[in-house]
Every structure is written in C-alpha cells, then in structure tokens.
Automatic annotation (TrEMBL):
Domain DSBA-like thioredoxin: residue ranges: 5-195
Domain of life of the organism encoding this protein: Bacteria
UniProt GO MF annotations: isomerase activity
UniProt KW Isomerase keyword: yes
Coiled-coil intervals: none
Enzyme class: isomerase
Protein's UniProt name: 2-hydroxychromene-2-carboxylate isomerase
Catalytically driven reaction(s): 2-hydroxychromene-2-carboxylate = (3E)-4-(2-hydroxyphenyl)-2-oxobut-3-enoate
Keyword flag Cell division: no
InterPro entries per record: DSBA-like_thioredoxin_dom, GST_Kappa/NadH, HCCAis_GSTk, NahD-like, Thioredoxin-like_sf
Keywords carried by this UniProt record: Isomerase
Length: 198
C-alpha cells in the first residue's frame, strides 16, 4: 500500500479550511489515505517571527479579499470571525483526543469546526462550544472534557507542532507526499500531479 499523505492544518487558517474540503477526495483519487495533523501555527510563527495573515500589515486586507473570493467560488458560507484568529486550543486538543479513538470521526469533527468557525458560529477557544460540536457527532461531552484536560494529551499536541516545525513546516495548510513538502491550498493541483506520477 502506498504511504498516506500527511495534511497539516490550523483551525484559524482559511486556506486550511479550503484544503480540508478537498483533501480526502484528492487522496482517494490516487489510492492514498489522508492523515490529518492539526497543529498550531503559533509554533511555527515563533520560529519565523511571522504574524497571522489577518494581523500582518498589507497581507491582512488581501487575505480577507482572497478568502472571501475562494469561499464564494467553492460555494461555502464564509465570514472571518470577530477577534480572528482565536487561539483555539480546545478545538486543537479535542481533534487529537477524537483522532486517538476514531480518526474518521476526527476528520468529520475538523470539517464541522472549520464550517462553524468560518460562519461565525463557533468560538474555538471555548471548550463548552467545542464539546457541543463533538457531541453532535456522537462523541460524549464527558469523555472529551476528560481527554482535553489530560496533561499527556496536552504534551502530545505540543509535540505534534514541534515535530512539524522540525520537519520544515512553517505555514498551513501543509501536505507531505512521500516526505515531499507542499505549502498552501493553491498547491493542491501540484499535489495531484505528484500523486498521479508517483
């Protein structure tokens, strides 16, 4: 079996959202599994001295236009939430807690978090709201609250981000195909060609 493609994403990244909507079908077209890796872009920003796109001078205005334009073309309801980007640690940790038990459910959870967050209907830094999303998909609130508070899970989440940066990840979305890196939603056509020629 060919190795999975690795999909690194951050819940506060609009480009990650657009990639998340496409990545499963893309991988399936080439007989690959997509392995989703949620991480915090803040880990990379500390190394690169970067700012979130929507807080960076000049980049901010363009990013808002571009995200809205892409969402419209993809038929996605979209708005940049007030106070964006949220730190989103509860959503990040919840993803990893769910992923440990059921990776397929974790992907569905991630897509729902993206959809709700970029509709202005979810505070990703509010555990009670995040738990409601998980509960709606069948993951018990009590189980999630216990898992998210587990120091071992918190350490695991930090480690995922640190390992990503150690592999050269400095933005999101980020895809590895057989360890070859691709940065950005707009690189998915290149990922497709790479998979077709693998």
């Amino acid at each position: 079996m060919p190795s999975p493609i690795e999909f690194f994403f951050d819940f506060g990244s609009g480009y990650s959202y657009f990639a998340a909507v496409e990545i499963e079908a893309l991988a399936a077209r080439h007989g690959r599994e997509a392995r989703w890796r949620a991480f915090s872009l803040g880990t990379a920003f500390k190394r690169t001295n970067a700012l979130p796109l929507t807080r960076a001078p000049l980049k901010s205005d363009y990013t808002r236009i571009d995200w809205t334009r892409i969402a419209r073309e993809k038929g996605l309801s979209f708005q940049i939430p007030e106070g964006h980007p949220h730190a989103g640690l509860p959503a990040l940790r919840a993803f990893h807690a769910i992923d440990r038990r059921d990776p397929a459910l974790a992907k569905r959870f991630a897509l729902e978090v993206f959809r709700l967050y970029f509709a202005g209907d979810l505070a990703t830094d509010d555990l009670s709201e995040v738990a409601e999303v998980a509960a709606g998909l069948g993951y018990p609130k009590a189980d999630l609250a216990a898992a998210v508070g587990d120091p071992e899970l918190k350490a695991h989440v930090r480690e995922v981000g640190e390992q990503a940066v150690a592999r050269g990840v400095f933005g999101a979305p980020w895809v590895f195909v057989d360890d070859e890196p691709f940065w950005g939603w707009d690189r998915l056509p290149m990922v497709e060609r790479r998979l077709a020629g693998a």
